[in-house]
Specification:
The protein has helices at about 1-5, 15-25, 35-40, 45-50, 65-75, 90-100, 110-120, 145-155, 175-195, 205-210, 320-330, 335-340; strands spanning about 10, 30-35, 60-65, 80-85, 100-105, 125-130, 160-165, 200-205, 220-225, 245-255, 260, 275-280, 285-290, 295-300, 310, 345-350, 355. With about 350 residues, it is an alpha/beta fold. The model has no long low-confidence stretch (mean pLDDT about 95). The chain binds pyridoxal-5'-phosphate. Pyridoxal-5'-phosphate (PLP) binds near residues 37, 206, 207, 222 and 224.
Length: about 350
């Protein structure tokens, strides 16, 4: 009974492998950095790393924080490059340096801490310097960039740092703004070169700009969503790419033209999804109400306890994709996935039978 009650996120490993290859082909000759934050957008770091290493394979991973990056390192082995851009505590920096994790540095105080820890550890920290090109999250303002770069280059000459990258993050609010950001970015790279460093990894685009705006690509593109088959909110379908995950729940009780299914708010299903269409064996039906651990769905002819209801997925059974659900809530598809809790069982399908994640 417990297994029946538990919702399942079914993840197609072959579709993930396929999406990653399609993204790599689209971006070439730029390299893909596969972004893995929030447990690989809710799909599971280990699962995604395994699929990413299928040939030709991903060489560069974006772990966001040090813990995720270390998990990637242990799964992917020493051959992969792993990039962590969340500001880390000294102890995390220490562990990151020992495991060869590359660090994104976008504040002067963080740069100083990385230098101190690297010197104490007798390590050379591989860093990507972050310029703020308008998003105002973190990143060095244009006015402060030359001094910041000079400090980093001095540390590089001292052997404590190696400046392997320059990066920024686009607002993606409008093409015109992104163009301005891209030209600020190019100037920032020039300043780094003039100061005597020669970083090979230049990156500022995420999924949408990497895919649709080739002129903005650096030598590296940081892509998460599209690899998982999540299209942008209000964005078009991506040719050759499909969602890798299907969220399924079972009917626990069927009465009075209502099916009660075993997924609710405590599984991470947003309670605002009431009214959304879900796929049942009788076709699309309205999700009437989301409760704590169950939800109500408009019934269908012949419905039975144990029937599968699909909340989102690639659409093979009439279910919507995660982004379509998200659009009803003015959010993004990845938000629907990353909110799913541990109560949702992850099942990985790899063609030769299934494996419980
Ligand atoms: C999440 C994130 C990305 C990936 O964005 P997608 O739209 O999922 O491809 C890239 N860069 C940074 C800094 C991010 O935080």
């Amino acid at each position: 009974m417990d297994e029946l009650r538990r919702p399942v996120l079914r993840i197609s490993r072959s579709q993930l492998v396929h999406n990653i290859a399609a993204v790599q082909k689209q971006l070439a000759p730029s390299a893909l950095m596969l972004v893995m934050k929030d447990d690989a957008y809710g799909h599971g770091v280990d699962t995604v790393v395994d699929a990413a290493l299928v040939q030709p394979g991903v060489a560069l991973f974006g772990g966001y924080d040090v813990d995720t990056s270390l998990q990637i390192r242990s799964r992917a082995g020493s051959g992969a490059r792993v990039f962590a851009w969340a500001i880390a505590r000294d102890e995390e920096i220490r562990r990151a340096l020992r495991e060869g994790i590359e660090l994104g540095v976008g504040t002067s105080s963080y740069l100083e801490r990385v230098i101190v820890v690297a010197a104490a550890e007798k390590q050379t920290a591989r860093v990507h310097l972050k310029i703020d090109t308008g998003l105002r999250r973190n990143g060095i303002r244009t006015e402060e960039w030359p001094d910041f770069v000079a400090r980093a280059v001095r540390a590089q000459f001292a052997g404590v740092l190696s400046i392997v990258g320059v990066w920024s993050h686009l607002a993606e609010a409008s093409d015109a703004e992104d163009d301005v950001s891209a030209s600020e970015f190019a100037q920032a790279v020039e300043i780094v070169r003039a100061a005597g460093a020669d970083p090979a990894s230049l990156h500022l685009t995420a999924s949408a700009a990497s895919w649709w705006r080739p002129e903005l690509r650096g030598t590296v593109c940081r892509v998460g969503a599209f690899c998982y088959g999540i299209r942008s909110a209000e964005g078009p379908e991506i040719p050759g790419i499909r969602p890798i995950a299907t969220l399924e729940s079972r009917v626990l009780a069927a009465e009075n033209d209502v099916a009660h299914i075993g997924i609710g708010a405590l599984h991470g299903l947003p309670s605002t999804l009431g009214g959304a269409p879900v796929a049942t064996l009788g076709g699309q039906r309205e999700l009437l109400r989301i409760d704590a651990v169950t939800s109500a769905v408009r019934g269908w002819e012949g419905m039975r306890v144990g029937d599968t209801v699909r909340i989102f997925g690639p659409g093979d059974h009439g279910e919507m994709d995660a982004t379509s659900l998200a659009e009803r809530n003015d959010t993004v598809g990845e938000e629907i996935l990353t909110r799913l809790t541990e109560r949702v069982r992850r099942v990985i399908e790899d063609g030769d039978g299934e494996r419980v994640g």
